[in-house]
Amino acid sequence: MPGVGRILIVTLLAYLPELGKLNRKEIAKLVGVAPLNRDSGHRKGKRSTWGGRSEIRKVLYMAALVATRYNPVINAFYNRLLDAGKEKKLALVACMRKLLVILNAMVKSGESWTPDMAMPKH
Fold first, then answer.
1. What is the pTM of this model?
2. Residue 56: CB partners within 8 Å, gap ≥ 6?
3. Three-state secondary structure call for residue 102
4. What is the pLDDT of residues 34-61, one digit of tens each?
5. Where exactly are the structural domains of the chain?
6. Is 52 exposed, middle or buried (0-12, 13-18, 19+ CB in 10 A)?
């Protein structure tokens, strides 16, 4: 998969043995790239990402940065978010999550990368 290198693969194997065993929401929360709310009563807080396994997040950040340039699916997703007015860092964290979810699905299904696997199935 474009944007995924040896360092990310080794990091995922070492620090994320749950890869391929959890659903997309669980795996994103475990790594710390899922948007979590800060609501209390009637107050709606800002959504942010926090917690999770920082070792994976650091490497995933660099992989997503590379993927925004060389992976056509992640690049299109990133540019779509920027065109919608999202901040660059928020768009990059969304790409991190998308990359992780795609890799999780690939491990779960045992399939190789194809650009159409990143498209949602209804």
1. 0.84
2. 11, 12, 15, 16, 31, 32
3. helix
4. 876 666 666 676 666 767 788 999 999 9
5. 6-35+51-118
6. middle
